[in-house]
Amino acid sequence: MKAxxxxxxxxxxxxxxxxxxxxIPKENExxxxxxxxxxxxxxxxxxxxxxxxTRAWGMFKPKYQxxxxxxxxxxxxxxxxxxxxxxxDEVFADIFERWGCLxxxxxxxxxxxxxxxxxxxxxxVAAVPQAAVVAxxxxxxxxxxxxxxxxx
Length: 152
Hints:
Blueprint: E1 2-5, E2 16-19, E3 29-38, H1 41-48, E4 70-78, E5 90-94, E6 105-109, E7 113-115, H2 122-126, H3 132-142
Antiparallel strand pairs: 1-2, 3-4, 3-6, 4-5, 5-7
């Protein structure tokens, strides 16, 4: 499969279109055929290696060599323990913990994916994750609110 890869910190000139192995989903992961991604300030920060905290994932060279954490696509395969997604499902997510969306396929933890609303395009939902999904994950995963509770 094709992916935009970078091997050292620097400018966008470091990005090269290369042939890489297609990922295989682990037991709790989903393989997604990428239909759209959005780029954010974090992509540029991790490409440049600045600010310094971005190098926590690789001081001298990037640990994750394929950028992109906001994804929209179609489920191609699921790991053996995934029971809430199936091939053909349209999904989107923020997979900041692992990156890799600037490729034809990416694996994602199943608990990070959300079904794409039928009324939205892949391009529209790819623009949502860093804003909406991060907020949803914080509320849901950190238990800040209870179901039915509002901020009023």
